[in-house]
Amino acid sequence: MARLKDIAEYVGVSISTVSRVIQNDQTRNVNQETKNKIWQAVKELGYIPNQHARNLVNNKQTKTRTMKIGWVANPTKAEINPYFDKIYTGIRDTLTNHDFTLITITKDELENETLLLKTIHDLGIEGLILIDRIDDSLIEYIQQTVPLVGLDFFYTDKNIAVVDYNREAAIKMVVQHLISQGHYEIGFIGGGINETFEDLHAENRFKGYQSAMKEAGLSIRPEWVINTKWRMESSYEEMNQLLKRDREHLPTAMVCASDLMALAAMRAVIENNLRIPEDIVFFGVDNLEMSKYSSPPLSTVEIPKYEMGKMAAKTIMDMVEEKITLPVKLILPFELVIRESSKKRT
């Protein structure tokens, strides 16, 4: 187990300097470059800053249970997006039923070194469920102390336990269904990945759309592909522009990577005096509660959101109690929900 002395020697500074940085002691200034080197050494050497945390790593004695699980997400994410609200509810209900307390932790708290130590060690968090994307090196550091479960597409390819659904397969099924209904001119509305959400081609739902179109021998028209960067207003505005550019050559169907993107684009269609589904059909993903109350009701993909949260909670509890020691991958099923926004072409 690394000590303060080891970090000091590794960086080439005094033990007191290392201690001041780790304890966030503001009485004497330490330049930022030195701070960065110290925190890098903390990660590389696996330093754990207090005896309680050392015991978690070494497992040399029975640890004191705190029954606290952290949920790492933007605190407003569940409030503004019903998709995450259902996942959160599944996590909360399951943990509460097993006498665990769910604590919201922001990405910023983990990425600030001092707050990271306080969150992981001083608060006694026994495990973390990740929604927001955090850096790979941070994942490796946290794993030295507490188990992790990743939810959603950020963590599918990481060496941690994951609960998710197959986004690529879901959209492929949607496109194949639309083709079977006589649609061959199919557009796509979605958002990219990475911090700016611009990389659409790396996003799994778009990959599913591309794959299904290619397998069917159908061409993809770039002007019918909209990257909204996951903003509803962009879905509405860009669909509006698509409709006005060339009224005589429009897609007969739009596949949308989420219900929210679909609902916004549908409004643009109605305001341009076109009919759904007679002129353009729409298909979303998520099966949010509001989708069945749109006009017309939105066809969508049912994603087991509550069950994803429930399974994430069960997995983290099993890992905390060492019933699971391997990074399990749980991929939950989905199904199409056919409503009036899509119908067979005649």
Automatic annotation (TrEMBL):
HTH lacI-type domain: from which residue to which, for each copy?
2-58
Domain of life according to the entry: Bacteria
| Pfam families for this protein | LacI, Peripla_BP_3
What are the alphabetically sorted keywords of the record? DNA-binding, Transcription, Transcription regulation
UniProt entry tagged with the keyword Transcription regulation: yes
InterPro entries documented for this protein: HTH_LacI, LacI/GalR-like_sensor, Lambda_DNA-bd_dom_sf, Peripla_BP_I
Q: Name one GO molecular function term.
A: transcription cis-regulatory region binding
The protein's matches in PANTHER family, at most eight in alphabetical order, are given as:
HTH-TYPE TRANSCRIPTIONAL REGULATOR GALS, LACI-RELATED TRANSCRIPTIONAL REPRESSOR
Name-wise, this protein is LacI family transcriptional regulator
Which gene is transcribed and translated to give this protein?
Answer: malR
